[in-house]
Design brief:
416 residues; alpha+beta; Cytochrome-c3 Hydrogenase, chain B; 4-stranded mixed beta sheet; 49% helix
């Protein structure tokens, strides 16, 4: 028995690797090792006053801080039975769209595209494909502008508050978002064909799971037709080789992310994104993990179209800028949000003084951990002994990259 070690995944967020176990010349097992240290955010929130918690949760990740902030405030508001206004919901959705644009552009243009053009990184790729790199940076910068405008800062913003916002955007800021959303559609459309050309990698999940709204909801939905709270059908367990928990749905492996969103919620897509989904529907339905890249490319179109729709509605109605008053009380609530990488959960119990008594966070990368192992196993079994060592390792890394993992987010353990 021998092991092939991927010591560290490259061009992904965070530190992780894999062990591929070979026995009698056959691939027997794959372990995805999330060895970045646990950060204990669930424990850090215990005993804290509810109002301070979203600002703390925003520190979980620099890339998807808004997803954590919005999931946190939604969990808190649900615990108190608070319903916010349409204006607040739209602005939070706009923030999530900015995050999706920034994150997808980073992943597709700068981390995955070099594989498709045969380069080691985006810097080398730029020597012959500089226009693509520039367009990726432009979309990414626009996403960051939205994040800063709504979230307060590009990184670890603290403007998302229970009941509303610390500051509301100005008309001029919203008009700028509307204008750029229209202009950048041309860039985003150009990249679709590139990711449609990617050869299949990885496995196909038995189940897809997402929130019941496109970027947030009040339940999870699954490809078998279930609508449920996460604790009803998802089992979490710890692993001896990973600081990320691993989850199964009804005992089976599942996937979250852009591909499950398109498969489960294509009826919610904006017009151009819907047409692209229909054009590539047959290809996407094959379900290989690498198709998550094509799904993200279509979601760039969705995000730009939806940003324009949201801003138009806000400008037509005028910005009211009023928060909802919250009276803390004992309660329990769950915040379901779609981070760029898939479904994200913040679950709280709050005592009568408004302090956090219980906290649980499940991130997309933790949800996808078992699917990552299955995909690497499938790809390794197909390629071991049939390709060069260099190509074998390259395809293992490309398979992992298709999940767009956020490893730092995934290291959440609870001891309650």
């Amino acid at each position: 028995m021998v092991s092939i070690e991927i010591e560290a995944f490259t061009r992904v967020e965070g530190n992780g690797g894999a062990e591929i176990v070979i026995e009698d010349g056959q691939v027997k097992e794959v372990k995805v090792k999330i060895f970045e240290g646990p950060r204990f955010f669930e424990l850090l929130t215990l005993g804290r006053y509810y109002y301070d918690v979203p600002d703390l949760e925003a520190r979980i990740c620099a890339i998807c801080y808004l997803s954590h902030s919005v999931a946190s405030v939604r969990g808190i508001e649900n615990a108190f039975g608070v319903k916010v206004t349409r204006e607040i919901e739209l602005l939070r959705e706009l923030a999530l769209i900015g995050e999706l644009l920034e994150s997808h552009a980073l992943h597709l243009y700068l981390l995955v595209a070099p594989d498709l053009f045969g380069y080691a990184d985006a810097i080398r790729m730029a020597s012959k494909h500089g226009e693509i790199v520039k367009e990726g940076f432009t979309i990414k910068a626009f996403g960051n502008y939205i994040r800063e405008t709504i979230g307060g800062r590009e990184i670890h913003g603290i403007n998302i508050k229970p009941g509303g916002f610390g500051r509301y955007p100005t008309v001029e800021e919203l008009e700028k978002i509307e204008k750029n959303s229209e202009a950048l559609l041309t860039f985003a459309k150009r990249i679709i064909g590139l990711f449609a050309s990617q050869k299949p990698l990885g496995a196909k999940a038995k189940y897809y799971i997402a929130t019941n709204g496109y970027l947030y909801g009040d339940k999870l939905i699954a490809s078998d037709g279930e609508s449920f709270d996460y604790f009803e059908h998802i089992e979490e367990r710890s692993l001896p080789y990973s600081f990320a928990k691993q989850s199964h749905y009804k005992g089976e492996i599942f996937m979250v992310g852009a591909l499950p969103r398109l498969i489960l919620k294509n009826n919610m897509l904006t017009p151009m994104a819907k047409r692209l989904f229909e054009e590539y529907k047959e290809q996407l339905s094959q379900g290989y993990v690498s198709l998550n890249n094509l799904a993200q490319a279509i979601e760039l179109i969705y995000a730009l179209e939806r940003a324009r729709e949201i801003v138009k509605e806000l400008l037509d109605k005028g910005i009211n800028g009023e928060n909802i008053t919250i009276e803390p009380k004992e309660g329990e609530g769950i915040g379901y949000v779609e981070a760029p990488r898939g479904a994200l959960i913040h679950h709280y119990r709050i005592d009568e003084r408004g302090n956090i008594a219980y906290s649980n966070i499940i991130t997309p990368t933790a949800f996808n951990h078992a699917m990552m192992e299955l995909s690497l196993f499938t790809e390794a079994k197909k390629r071991y002994g049939n390709t060069s060592e260099m190509e074998f390792m390259q395809k293992m890394e490309e398979t992992v990259r298709a999940f767009d993992p956020c490893i730092s987010c995934s290291v959440h353990l609870t001891f309650l």
